[in-house]
Amino acid sequence: MKEIKHGAPQIPSPLRVFITFESTGWFDTSKEQKEKEILPQLNKILEEWKENGSELLGTFDRDIFTAGHAGPNHWHACFLYNIPDLQTVTNMTHSIREAGLDRYIRLEASIGRPFFLLEK
Fold first, then answer.
1. Which domain holds residue 95?
2. What angle do CA 37, 39, 42 make, to 5 degrees?
3. What digits encode the pLDDT tens for the residues 91-120?
C-alpha cells in the first residue's frame, strides 16, 4: 500500500470558502416583502458576486426535508466557492449588511481547503 503523508494544511490559492446562509428575520416578513424587496435585493447581490473573481463550485439547500427555522444546523443553504482573497470574502459578507439584508439573512464564511484524499 502506498504511504500517504498528511502534513500541515496549506492555505490554498484561490481560497476554498464555505458560506452558510440562514434565514433569520425572513419569517417575520410578509409574502409581498419577500417577493418585492428581499429576494430582488438578494438576487442582485448574488449576481454581483459573479463579477468579483469568485468561482461558484456548488450549492446545497436543505429545504427538501425541512421547513421553518434552521434549527441546530444554523443554516438553510450553503455555497461553496473558490475566492481569490480574504478581502473579497469580506466584501461578499459585507454586501448583505450594506444592503440591509442582515435583518433577514445571516451569512458566515469558513475558509478551508480541498479534502486531500479526494482532490489533489
1. 15-65+74-112
2. 105
3. 999 999 999 999 999 999 999 999 988 987
